[in-house]
Design goal:
The longest helix is centred in the N-terminal third of the chain and has 15 residues. With 230 residues, the protein is of the alpha/beta class. The chain is built from eight helices and nine strands. Helix 5 packs parallel to helix 8. The protein is elongated and about 55 Å long. The chain has a single domain, classed as Rossmann fold, CATH 3.40.50. A six-stranded parallel β-sheet has the order 3-2-1-7-8-9, with helices on both faces.
C-alpha cells in the first residue's frame, strides 16, 4: 500500500507559473481594498467591480501553464497516495495531472448561485456578468470563499490531514487561517517538510520538521529524491 502524502499548497507555487498573487505590500489587491473584492459586503455593494476583478483572474488562467512544482507533485502519485489541499483558486494542479485536489478557497473556473437555497455549482471558463443567472433567476457569483465566509471543505481537509503519513507545505506563509492550522491536525510522529524561499517560523509543533528554503520548482525535485530514497 502506498504511503499517504498530503500536500498543502499556497500562492507561491502558482506565482512561479506567472499567476499574480495580486496582493501588494500595502495590503491592496490591485488597487482595491481587500474587502471591496473579497467579501460578501463588497459583492452586495458593487457586483460589477467584483465580477470584473475575478473575470481578469479567470482570463489569466487561460494564459498560464503548470510549472515543475505542479508536475513533480503529479509524478509523486507513481509512488505515493498523494492528496493536495490547496489555498489556490487556479486549476494548475489538475492541469499537471494531480488526481486528488481539494480547493479550500474555491475555484476560479466555477461559479455558484448567490442564493443559499441553491447549492448547485457550475463550470465557468468565460467572463461572468450580472446577466448570468441560475435556472431560478438567482444571480451567479464566483465560486470563491470570501473573507468572513465559512470554508466548506475544511472538515474534509482536516480528515485528510489526520490520515497523512507524510505532510508537505509548499509556497505559503502560513498566515491565512484556517488553512495554516491544518499542520496541528497531523499525527505528531509523522515528518513534515516545508518548502518556501522565505519560510515562516513554525511554533509548538512536535513533528520532525525539515525546511527546504527554496521555491517550489527548486525544492520539490529535491524533496522527491529524498522521499524516494527512503
Amino acid at each position: 500500500m502506498k504511503k499517504k502524502l498530503v500536500v498543502l499548497t499556497g500562492a507561491g507555487i502558482s506565482a512561479e507559473s506567472g499567476i499574480k498573487t495580486f496582493r501588494d505590500a500595502d495590503g491592496l489587491w490591485e488597487g482595491h481594498d481587500i474587502m471591496e473584492v473579497a467579501s460578501y459586503d463588497g459583492w452586495i455593494k458593487n457586483k460589477s467591480l467584483v465580477l470584473d476583478f475575478y473575470n481578469q483572474r479567470r482570463r489569466q488562467l487561460h494564459e498560464v501553464q503548470p510549472n515543475l512544482g505542479h508536475i513533480t507533485l503529479a509524478e509523486l502519485e507513481n509512488d505515493f497516495d498523494v492528496h493536495i489541499i490547496t489555498q489556490n483558486v487556479d486549476n494548475l494542479h489538475e492541469q499537471a495531472g494531480s488526481s486528488n485536489v481539494l480547493h479550500l478557497h474555491g475555484e476560479l473556473f466555477k461559479v455558484r448561485s448567490d442564493s443559499h437555497f441553491s447549492p448547485e455549482i457550475f463550470e465557468w471558463k468565460t467572463d461572468l456578468t450580472e446577466n448570468d443567472k441560475d435556472s431560478n433567476g438567482n444571480q451567479l457569483r464566483p465560486h470563491i470563499v470570501w473573507f468572513g465566509e465559512a470554508v466548506p471543505a475544511l472538515d474534509e481537509a482536516v480528515e485528510i490531514t489526520q490520515e497523512a503519513a507524510i505532510f508537505v507545505v509548499i509556497g505559503t506563509s502560513l498566515q491565512v487561517y484556517p488553512a495554516a492550522g491544518l499542520l496541528h491536525y497531523t499525527n505528531p510522529t509523522i515528518p513534515i517538510f516545508y518548502i518556501d524561499p522565505k519560510p515562516a517560523t513554525i511554533y509548538d509543533l512536535p513533528n520532525p520538521l525539515e525546511i527546504i528554503a527554496l521555491s517550489a520548482t527548486e525544492g520539490l525535485p529535491i524533496l522527491k529524491n529524498k522521499l524516494l530514497a527512503k
